[in-house]
Every structure is written in structure tokens, then in C-alpha cells.
């Protein structure tokens, strides 16, 4: 099974799909069903629903059930930063953390783990600084 199909393993593909979905939703005056969003971003609807579910849990989207159900933005596009979306998908884990899994439990591996940990921390800090500058409205 590919990594993007595993709920606990978000990646930059998820981030890209989330951003595109939010841009689509920012142009919809009413709720928009996941199938319609998936068709617009050329993605698989089931995976997209997983992504949208995370965004809803983090208060970025609201969901509506029923015949006119679907998703809609909970706030104005100008108020939703890319940093917020990134952190919502991250679920407490860095997108770079799989890099740590490449180190082994031996002397060299532990040294590399410590170095990778520091680098990942710095990369994440800079990623958040950049993403904080942009909102969904900037991409519309």
C-alpha cells in the first residue's frame, strides 16, 4: 500500500491536494461534495476525504451531511494560512521524520540520528516561516 493511502502517514502529496481542495472550496458559495472536489483536482475521492477529514478536525473546514452535504471553509480564505494546513496534516509528526527511520541502532546510526534530528528541526522551522506568509486567498 502506498504511503499516501495510510491515514497516519501524511506527505507532501497530501499537502498539495489539501491546498488545491481549499482553493476549490474557496470558490464554492455552498457546500461542495468530496466527489466534485476530487474531480476538480484530479484525485481519488477516498484519499481526498481522509485529507478533508483532518482539515475538518482541525477547524479549517466544516462538513454537512445529506443531499446538499459536503465541505465548506469554516473561515475566510484570507484567514487560513498554509502553515495551519501543513500543521493540520502533520498530526504531531514532521514530514521529514521518515528520514530518522533510515538510521540504525548501532554507533554510526545513533550519530546520524542525532545529526538528522537537528537538521529536521531546522528544516521544519524554516518551512513554517515560509508557509506562515501565505494564505489560501493568495492562491486563488
TrEMBL record:
It holds the Pfam family Rrf2. Coiled coil: none annotated. It comes from the Bacteria. InterPro entries: TR_Rrf2-type_CS, Tscrpt_reg_Rrf2, WH-like_DNA-bd_sf, WH_DNA-bd_sf. PROSITE patterns: HTH_RRF2_1 (PS01332), HTH_RRF2_2 (PS51197). Signal peptide: none annotated. This is Rrf2 family protein. It comes from Paenibacillus shirakamiensis.
